[in-house]
UniProtKB/TrEMBL annotation, chain A:
Keywords per UniProt: Copper, Metal-binding, Oxidoreductase
Protein name: Copper oxidase
Chain residue ranges for the region called Disordered: 441-476
Organism superkingdom: Bacteria
Sample GO molecular function, one term: copper ion binding
Metal-binding among keywords: yes
Source organism: Sandaracinobacter neustonicus
From TrEMBL, chain B:
Domain of life: Bacteria
Official protein name in the record: Copper resistance protein B
Protein keywords: Signal
Pfam families: CopB
BP GO annotations: intracellular copper ion homeostasis
GO terms under cellular component: cell outer membrane
Amino acid sequence: MQLPVPFIRAIPLAGLLLFAVPGQTRDVTVDLVTQRERLEVNPGRRDLVVTLNGSVPGPVLRFREGDNVTVNLRNDLPEMTAIHWHGLLVPGHHDGAPGFNGFPGIAPGATYTYNFTLRQSGTYWYHSHASTQEQAGQYGALIIEPKDGPDVAVDREHVILLTEHTPEDPERIIRNLKGDAGYYNWNKRTTPELLRDAGKFGLGKTLSDRAAWGRMRMDPTDIADVSNYTLLVNGLPTARKPFFEMKKGEKVRLRFINGSAMSFMDVRIPGLTMTIIAADGRAVEPVQVDEFRMAVAETYDVLVEPQEDRAYPLWVETIDRRANALAVMGPAPGMPVEAPRPRPMQILMMGEMGHAMGAPAQPATSHAGHQMAATDPDTAILNAAAERQPHAMPDMAGMPPAASSCTPEHAAMGHCSMPAAPEPAPKSECSAEHAAMGHCKMPEPAPPPAQDSSCPPEHAAMGHCTPKPPTPSGPDRIGTAVPATAVQGGTAFPRVDYGYGADPMAGMDHSQMNHAMTELAREGDVDGSGRVFGWATGAPYGARVLSMRDLVAAKPNPDARAPTREIVIRITGNMERYMWSLNGKPFGEAPPVDVQFGERVRITFVNETMMAHPMHLHGMFFEIENGAPADRMPEKNVIAVAPGRTQSVILTANEPGEWPLHCHLLFHMDSGMMKKLIVANVGPAPGDAPADAHQHKAH
Amino acid sequence: MRALLVSLLFATAPAFAQTVDEPAAHLHGNRTYSYTSAEADYSRQSGTDVVNWDAEGWIGGDNHKFWWKTEGEHAGSAFEKAEVQALYSRNVWTFFDVQGGVRTDIEPDRRAYAVVGVQGLAPQLLETELHAFIGFKGDVSIRFKQSFDLRLTNRFVLEPQLETDLYLTDVPERRVGSGFSTIETGVQARYEVTRKFAPTLAVTYESKLGETARLAREDGEDTGGWSVRGGVRFWF
């Protein structure tokens, strides 16, 4: 047994691979051994983990586009294993998902040889797709350089693989969750908090808020399922002082990977502008941000150019704020950096739980006006939903006058601008955390274009206003998730629109939207105990924060056809029993989704749960319908769908095989939140007629 | 009859247990888990040392489970009450299971019942159980249990509890009259040292009711009253 091998030691292995001549096809062989052993991850204690070549994480695998890759994986675990090449376009039986494409997994003691030719470049990763081995450490970064050399000239490059570690056996974690779904939540609301809320919001309003949550039998503090995590940066906790060398004046590429089991993370480097240049391995038009939120399993390539001769903190926080990591980026290790204060915890709102409140079950999507083939029953439902708008507005006596582009309901929820409410002049040096404590006034944001702030995407989709189209290119594109101070009308924190789906309630029958009336406060307000209302909060006013809407493909996609049909995937579950499913059925009980080879389909995710789910498709990229032009929608393999939201993607089904489509929160997947998507070269030729959804059930 | 029930219990348990240890063969859903919780407390009532226990557990998947339950009371040097239930539990509504099976009593006298009922989480997060017991000797009763958690902190929890038995028949051998026969209610405080282990301190009112109380008084017996009970609860 040995100490965890720092990530950097894996580089010599990978470094050898880089000396070959660019542009030439190479045969590259990698040998991996996986086993269970004790490692000292946190100083002073040795925990049982699953290693690859003796370390957590496994070695950084560096390849070049066009390489013919052979990976020999020897399984020294006492159980079946399988490594999945996350985001890679590979033949189905080399994708590494047991039970798919006839791949049975790798038996204990056996060696399996993966073989594939790389048809892409970018930042990816690899991890176990069997049992609960990934949670225990079986993961690593996988970097593919373009065949003609680096796509961006940089002085330095770092891979930053963010993961979590817990001393607990993952099998025990899921047993604990099955026994008590709130097992890891030590931040439940208490009676003293009820009294504080009563003092702030009034007893009647507070009691009716508690009663509403009680009726739903849900917990507004259920932001993340598992705690006791230590965040790791390339396998190192903060205590081991992860360090990334970076000098003044250099252009540095950071390849961020969220390889965690369960943690969405907010990433920032206070003092540095980060320019996002790729998402999930695919190049995007550069976007400048101060911070970005990483869904589980996403990767982002970021450029930074430090202008000062000093160390910068790399600060990573999980969105439940229960774990964080601090790394030093600078000219030399050991230089002092100051960690920002952790942000306040969040408290969910009922508005995020539209479906739980007896709202219409049919989703309205951001593209409801599109012409879609009427043969699919799901499509028919969507069209019907679209025809129901516009709708009558309920009596909103007492509400302040709202802009014509903004329904009162949305104004009430802080979704859009309220020009009548002027803002105090804020001080820019005040962090939002301090502002929330009343220590100072709020910082001044750069005022965004008026159109942008008055028109959230939900409304734009409904034709209520004209959205500002994402700028396809240009040097000054910035993250737009935080629109403006004015939009919020005075909440302590802005509502951050991460672009994780649209509000399906927008444009629905608002008479059923009674939760808007019982909401204790607005999104971005602070409750009596310092928690911030709303899942999508945390970033301060004026911050440049990445939204999915800011992602625009750097190059036009070859296939910009309109989709021929729509497949609706409802994200379903029962938190109380820790049951997770898609379309109400756990994996194994659900029929597969069949797609004709070559077909272009829309997949619409409707999140009916109170958690955000990072939905991942193997084998192919899908394009995010984020408002970008049809040929410039960003390609990704993971899309986060926020609680109660709806998000669609477009898929060109050009990789035949059986592909897992699942939530990448690993304990959700383990509980059944997965589906099989089959791309088969049978049935009518693509474009002739939409294939019937259940035609190939016999597969 | 009892031998039959006990052997049924033991025959079923290993069958389930086998699948528990099966190494993740059924990946991603439909796996078998198990849960066991137990609670015991001590009190001194009318000069007698009294120990109460209440344990239950399940083995199974999300929708189908085998549940077992046992509860009872030991007072002085004898068991006053002791019962065991073995139930099949089926998740029918989001928050509720329908259960059916058998209950066998060892004390105060040996008898068995068919059981049918529901168990789950009612609105306002009320843990709720409602079971009907149809005795093979002809007695029929209904038991209702409810409790909820009031958190003073995330570890210190007050749990108001209520349990009552309603008899639809007289049971002369047990000196039980039809109607509500017993009530047990109070507040249990617990401190969750871990999620799985908590010492408890409860103030409980336990009393016979109605005709059953009248029969007890006739026999010169105590009908019950307030007690302070200290104990532990744990689960795994």
